[in-house]
Design brief:
InterPro entries: LysR_HTH_N (IPR000847), LysR_subst-bd (IPR005119), WH-like_DNA-bd_sf (IPR036388), WH_DNA-bd_sf (IPR036390). The protein is α/β, with parallel strands linked by helices. 42% of the residues lie in helices and 26% in strands.
Length: 296
């Protein structure tokens, strides 16, 4: 077997990152035909087939996935080194790039990043993304840490997600201030309407179990996946809702909304997601530890 050409391997890695030969060629400033020839040369040198073409898509073979795992380790380590030299060199401002799940509670996010606002030696970038974009950002070293409300399972051989539970917030029935029924649930709730999380949310499942135990059928006016929108509807609609009090803490403090009581064994969990690195950034580790201690 000919000696491995790391230049060809790098091109292979960039194609898999972009999931498109055309986009990878544009980023690498080479022609698509030249890039294709480089990858074919890599396959020839290794005596393997890395891709299968399905229509316009390139699909990795089993061997291609194994080669990708090695390439990912080699080149992501190189990118990590570049980021380390750029962001963690002594005597310069340190920078953290954070990604947050797009439907996550804004109040919780603000609480989580509070230590960064108070640290004069750190600045940060914060972007709201869908889950797929968050995970791609972690793998591609675009972000240092992702904040989500669910743990991520490792389904790909080339990626290991590190899930750190940083907080578990109790879930409660939230309603207009001063309108809480005087009797225990479900008495006094028969004529109430609800705005609740979508059916795929853990909170929704816990609420439905709670209602089933009490043989109560909620009159659901709206199902909302976005936590920020759920907060607005809880505040403005006059209906009852189910969410962590931290989401509406300002409205509770200003006596617009009221916590009618926690739902037993119902929590929303918040996770800090990272990927393994040779040298984990200390400021990221400190941020996670601070959050764990705050919500312990």
């Amino acid at each position: 077997m000919a000696r491995l050409n790391y230049h060809h391997l790098y091109y292979f890695w960039r194609v898999t990152k972009n999931r498109s030969l055309t986009e990878a060629a544009e980023e690498l400033h080479v022609s698509q035909s030249a890039l294709s020839a480089q990858i074919k040369q890599l396959e020839s040198n290794l005596n393997v087939t890395l891709f299968l073409r399905q229509g316009r898509k390139l699909v990795l073979t089993d061997v291609g996935r194994r080669v990708l795992a090695y390439a990912q380790n080699i080149f992501s380590t190189g990118e990590e080194l570049e980021n380390f030299l750029q962001k963690d060199t002594a005597y310069q401002m340190q920078h953290i790039t954070l990604g947050v799940q797009s439907n996550l509670s804004r109040n919780f996010i603000e609480s989580f990043i509070e230590p960064l606002l108070e640290n004069a030696n750190i600045n940060f970038s914060l972007s709201s993304r869908g889950m797929t974009d968050l995970l791609n950002g972690l793998v591609n070293h675009e972000i240092d840490l992702a904040l989500t409300n669910r743990a991520i399972l490792s389904e790909r051989q080339d990626t290991i997600w590190q899930n750190q539970l940083v907080a578990r917030q109790p879930v409660a029935i939230i309603g207009p201030y001063g309108d809480k029924p005087s009797s225990e649930f479900p008495e006094g709730y028969q004529d109430k309407k609800w705005v609740v999380p979508g059916k795929n949310a853990d909170i929704r499942s816990a609420f439905e179990s709670f209602c089933a135990v009490h043989q109560y059928q909620p009159d659901i006016k709206a199902e909302v996946d976005d936590m920020a929108m759920l907060r607005l509807l809880a505040r403005d609609s006059g209906f009852l809702s189910v969410l962590p009090p931290v989401v509406v803490k300002d409205e509770i403090e200003s006596k617009v909304l009221e916590d009618y009581g926690s739902i037993p064994q119902a929590f929303e969990s918040f996770y800090a997601i990272t990927v393994p690195r040779k040298f984990a950034a200390q400021n990221v580790l400190d941020l996670i530890k601070t959050a764990i201690n705050k919500y312990a």
